[in-house]
Amino acid sequence: MRLRNIAGSREVIADSDFTVKEPDKKKGLWKEVFGNDNPIRVEIGMGKGRFLMDMAQLHPDINYVGIEKYSSVLLRALQKQEQLLLPNIIFIRMDAEEITEVFAPSEVDRIYLNFSDPWPKDRHAKRRLPSRQFLERYDKILKSDGVVEFKTDNRDLFMFALDEIEPAGWNLDAVTYDLHNDEKMMIGNVMTEYEERFSQAGNPIYKYIISRKGSK
Ligand code: SAM
Fold first, then answer.
1. Which domains does the chain show, CATH number per domain?
2. How far apart are CA 144 and CA 142, in angstroms?
């Protein structure tokens, strides 16, 4: 059985206190959701949520929103959160294509893209999370000095992502082609599930940090 087809996961998610139902109704109101003024950081395509839950434990003064398209993987994050009960993390089951319906301008402080799906066919390029179409969406919700951090082991996807920066009107602030051997870029690095798997297999991990032109 494919993981994404686990029976009942959609219903469990709909009933969970750890997910936001009708997230578009929270647009502009995320500070109220968390009950404080702390910065809001979003991971798009969080899978089972290991990275974001580790981040939430390390940084209790930051609020984290995990976005995931598929119920069956999101379910794993909810099961973990039932034990951890972290106050500074919440999840949304949604397609990130709708992200501008969910966050108001400048509401988000940082966006994490970790091991995003490569969508290798050219005609699917606009579905890639670091594509210019998605950068345009991130531009609408990020604070003026907000950044996007992207990690992957997929060289083709990374090269594509680098080529999208300039035409989309963003700056490359930092880049590495071998994160785990880059002392500076490794400071504060928190491994994702895929990162652990692929780095153990010997794959180099690529990472960039980008911001909008003129934000510095
Ligand atoms: N970030 C995790 C990690 O690094 O371990 C999971 C990586 S997994 C390869 C990519 C995840 O992104 C999948 O769970 C997929 O369902 C999710 N995803 C892909 N496109 C998405 C979209 N448009 N909106 C929300 N989630 C998406």
1. 9-212 (3.40.50.150)
2. 6
